[in-house]
C-alpha cells in the first residue's frame, strides 16, 4: 500500500531548504528484480535469494526460478482435480516476470501482486491482479484468459496488453498493444483495438476509451520511464514505488504541473529529479527520509 502521507501536503513546518545541494541517492534505492512467492500451503519464498532453484508444488507441478530472475511453471502431464493457487508479491522497489503453465508471460511492476492457478483447468483461465502487469497471453480460443482487478474484468483469447490497478489509485487502466481485449466493469463493456486504452473509475460506472501511444504505458517493463503530458503527482507515484521513497508536496499547485520526457530506471533518482527541475519551476529537497516538492519562497 502507498503511504498515506505521500498524497498529502507536507505540514511539518517550513524549515526545508530548496537551495541545498542534496544527494537523493542517500534516501532512495534503485529498484531491482525481487519478489516473494506464496505457495499453496502458505509458505513464502524470497525469490531473489533462491535463484537457480526448482520448487515442487503439492500437485507435482515444477516451478523453476532461473538466474535471470524469471519464474516458469512447467505444464503437468496430469491435471489436478481442483485449482491450486500460488501468489507472487512484488514489493516497492521490485519487479519480476513469470511464465504461467499455459505459456502466458507476465511482467509485474513494483508494489504489485498476482494470484493464479498453478495449472489451469476448466473452461476459463482466471487470475487476480493488484498493481500493474504487462501480459502476453498464450492463445487458446477454447479457454479465454480473464484478469480480475477490483470491480473490473479484462477478457482475452491471446494478446499483449498492460493493466494498471493499484489500490491507491482510483483509475483502472487497460492499454492494448496487440490483438483485442474486452474490458467490463459494473455493467459497462468495451472491446479494445490496438493503441486504445480503457479507463475505469473504480467503484463507479464511469468508463472511457481513449486512443493512446501504448509505448508510454508499457516502457516500464523495458527499463524506461516515459512521460508525456503527465502530472508531477503521477510521476512521483511511479518514482516512489521504484525507488522506495516518499514524496510530499508543499502546495497542491505542484501536483498538476505537466511534463514530458524519459529516463532509464537503472539511473539514480538524482538524474530524474534534476531533469524535472530543469523543465519546470519546481525544486526538490530532503527532510529526514522524505523528499519535499516545492520551491524557495
Automatic annotation (TrEMBL):
Gene3D superfamilies: 2.60.120.1440, 3.55.50.30. InterPro entries: FecR (IPR006860), FecR_C (IPR032508), Ferrdict_sens_TM (IPR012373). Residues 225-293 form the Protein FecR C-terminal domain. Residues 88-182 form the FecR protein domain. Pfam families: FecR, FecR_C. GO terms for molecular function: sigma factor antagonist activity. This is Anti-sigma factor. It comes from Labilibaculum filiforme.
Amino acid at each position: 500500500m502507498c503511504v498515506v502521507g505521500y498524497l498529502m501536503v507536507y505540514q511539518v513546518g517550513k524549515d526545508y531548504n530548496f537551495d541545498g545541494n542534496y544527494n537523493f541517492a542517500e534516501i532512495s534505492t534503485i529498484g531491482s528484480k525481487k519478489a516473494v512467492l506464496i505457495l499453496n500451503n502458505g509458505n513464502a519464498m524470497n525469490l531473489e535469494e533462491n535463484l537457480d532453484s526448482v520448487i515442487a508444488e503439492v500437485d507435482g507441478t515444477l516451478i523453476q526460478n532461473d538466474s535471470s530472475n524469471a519464474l516458469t511453471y512447467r505444464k503437468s502431464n496430469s491435471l489436478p482435480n481442483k485449482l491450486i493457487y500460488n501468489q507472487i508479491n512484488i514489493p516497492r522497489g521490485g519487479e519480476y516476470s513469470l511464465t504461467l503453465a499455459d505459456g502466458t508471460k507476465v511482467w509485474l511492476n513494483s508494489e504489485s501482486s498476482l494470484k493464479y492457478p498453478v495449472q489451469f483447468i476448466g473452461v476459463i483461465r482466471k487470475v487476480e491482479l493488484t498493481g500493474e502487469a504487462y501480459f502476453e497471453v498464450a492463445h487458446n480460443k477454447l479457454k479465454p484468459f480473464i484478469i480480475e482487478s477490483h470491480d473490473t474484468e479484462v477478457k482475452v483469447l491471446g494478446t499483449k496488453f498492460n493493466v494498471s490497478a493499484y489500490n491507491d489509485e482510483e483509475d483502472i487502466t487497460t492499454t492494448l498493444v496487440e490483438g483485442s481485449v474486452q474490458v467490463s466493469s459494473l455493467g459497462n463493456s468495451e472491446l479494445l483495438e490496438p493503441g486504445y486504452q480503457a479507463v475505469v473509475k473504480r467503484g463507479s460506472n464511469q468508463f472511457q476509451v481513449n486512443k493512446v501511444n501504448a509505448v508510454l504505458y508499457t516502457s516500464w517493463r523495458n527499463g524506461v520511464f516515459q512521460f508525456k503530458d503527465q502530472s508531477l503527482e503521477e510521476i512521483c507515484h511511479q518514482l516512489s514505488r521504484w525507488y522506495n521513497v516518499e514524496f510530499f508536496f508543499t502546495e497542491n499547485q505542484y501536483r498538476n504541473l505537466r511534463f514530458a520526457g524519459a529516463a532509464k530506471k537503472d539511473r539514480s533518482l538524482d538524474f530524474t529529479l534534476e531533469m524535472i527541475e530543469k523543465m519546470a519551476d519546481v525544486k526538490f529537497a530532503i527532510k529526514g527520509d522524505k523528499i519535499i516538492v516545492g520551491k524557495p519562497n
